[in-house]
Structure formats: C-alpha cells, structure tokens
C-alpha cells in the first residue's frame, strides 16, 4: 500500500508544502540544498513532526489491514497515528547501534519489540544480516565493526522490523569514499527486493541516480522537479537540479525564425529550431571548448569569458566562467596548464550549435 502525502507543515518561519506519493517497492530519492526541507519531510513521514494542513496516509499497521491505507496524520479531522504504530523503519547517517548488544541482538530488536519470541527474533536477524553480507559478524559487538559494516547492520535492523515505509536520511554521508561505494551497492541490492515504500534523502546525486526509481528535488520547502533519473538528467528544469546533474542550463525564448535568446540577452545558435517559444537550453560542460584567442572556422557559439574557478578531479577539470553568460566547461587537466586557467584568466568559450539542446519550459 502506498504512502500519500499532500499537505504542509511549519517550523518557525519555514514552511514545507508538498504532494508526494511513494508506491510499494519504489525508492524515491529526495534531494535539495541545505535547508530545503528534506529532514522536515522525513520527520513528517515518521510522525516526529505533525502536519499543519492537509493529510498523510500510509499502509495499515497490522497484518490484517496490510492491503489498506490508513490516515496517519490529518489535522483537520484530528487523525494522528503515533510514530511507533506507523511501521516505519529509519536509518540515519549515524547507525546508532546499541553498544551493549551483539550485532544479532541489535537487529533482533525490531521483531522482538513487535512481540516476536527470542528464537524467532534471532532467526529474522540472521536472515537480514545475511542479505547485507554480515552473517559472519552476528556475534560481534558493534564497537568491533567498520563504519560501513555498522551502517549495513543499521539497515538490517530497520528492515528486520518489517517496515512498510523505510526512511533513509543521508545513510551514506558519514562513510569515507571507498566504503561509500561498497555500502551503496549493498543498499541498492537490498532495496531491489524490499517490498515496502522507501524514501532516501541524500546530498549525493550518485546515490540518487544509482539507487532510486524516482527523484524529487526540493527547494525552499517546495518541490521543484520530479522525474526518473533519466528524465532529470536529460531534462533538468531548475538551476539546482542542473548543477546536481552537471549540466549548463538557461531559460530562453525562441522567436519565429528559430533564434534562441537566453534570459540575460545572449543569442545562441541551435541546430534544430525549438518547437516552443519558452524553452530550457542545456549544454554539457564537456561540449564547451576553450581557446586563448577567438577561433575562426566552423559556425559555432562563441563568447569571451573570464574564469571564476577551476576544480580539478583526476585528469579533468571543471572551469566556471562568467561574462555575457555564465558557463561551466569541462576540459582536460592538461588544458588547464596549457591555457593557464585560473581565476581572472580571459578565454574564448565555444559550443557547436549541434551541442545545444532545447526543450519546452
Ligand atoms: N525545530 C525547528 N524549529 C525552527 N525551524 C526549524 C526547525 N528545524 C528545522 N528548521 C528550519 O527548517 C528549514 C528546513 O530544515 P531541514 O532540516 O528540513 O532542511 P534539510 O533540507 O534537511 O537541510 P540539510 O541538508 O542542511 O540537512 C531550515 O530553514 C531550518 O532552519
């Protein structure tokens, strides 16, 4: 049974207002800048914060009403289901394992607190630990686990309680880069067989793109874009979303002759005239070429711009430029040296018309 939220809540001056559906078996990733309301959303779903308006419904708590949705929170009708009755599993950045219990007893805690006997609780725990590759650490104390193992135990503990809604709030953010890769893979594999609803809050686009079926972007307490990873990557509709997926994005208007003019004035040559007047324009950073002087030759878009920042990552670099337009270019590390790219350097940036994509805004 799905989770359905359509409502708002207030925290001080901040208002979170959104509609969100999560289907069984679906993983929805929630992304957004700091302070956009991601944790507030998790708190609302978990029952730690109440709605001020609207309604939230989720799967029924007992085995018998598993097929039906029940109202979890609706201030107008004074409906309120307490957090412990919502069948919600929660995993945070900190695994928060009980230090005095073995790994097995940590994981058995969920089923035991729902009334399972000692033997059943331990059997459930062992089965869950096996699914996250930790069957051999069942007897260990949490203090002897690596950070990645501890987080996998936290996931097993949340799932051993057979939640209908699993909330993962930055579950990988405290891990180092290498551990993050392996833990992400374990998480993705485990979630593929989880039949309940999952909401994953993350700052990392890679988590969202590799684990989630659908992405929801929040900004200032509102949803700014929803889509599958493919839709979001190919057609961002918000500057924050474009930054996350690493694309240059502008709003623009197209006239009857097909000339595309960016908000801010610069005209852009495109290969195919857009089929709408109001459009989004995108350019991949790797499609931007940088030159010391104005290049001559094939028709292309060219602007004289000033370097604002250079970020090196391995053999490539992202170069932020400003001037007639703001643009990010991705060039080789060798070009950074050849063109002496550093804040203040003036360069020519060019983009072929065939590398400019447009779609209706
Ligand atoms: N208890 C509170 N009282 C008043 N305001 C709050 C409270 N908790 C959060 N806020 C405000 O609500 C807004 C949203 O916070 P929230 O923690 O949901 O954002 P977030 O997207 O999770 O941010 P981050 O990525 O930094 O964790 C912020 O402006 C924050 O200052």
UniProtKB/TrEMBL annotation:
GO MF assignments: ATP binding
Ranges of residues in domain ABC transporter: 3-245
Entry-linked PROSITE patterns: ABC_TRANSPORTER_2, MOP
PANTHER family given in the database record: SPERMIDINE/PUTRESCINE IMPORT ATP-BINDING PROTEIN POTA, SPERMIDINE_PUTRESCINE IMPORT ATP-BINDING PROTEIN POTA
Residue ranges of domain Mop in the record: 296-360
The protein's name in its UniProt record: ABC transporter ATP-binding protein
Keywords: ATP-binding, Molybdenum, Nucleotide-binding, Transport
Natural source organism: Luteipulveratus flavus
Cross-referenced InterPro entries: AAA+_ATPase (IPR003593), ABC_SmlMolc_Importer (IPR050093), ABC_transporter-like_ATP-bd (IPR003439), Mo/tungstate-bd_C_term_dom (IPR008995), Mop_domain (IPR004606), P-loop_NTPase (IPR027417), Transp-assoc_OB_typ1 (IPR005116)
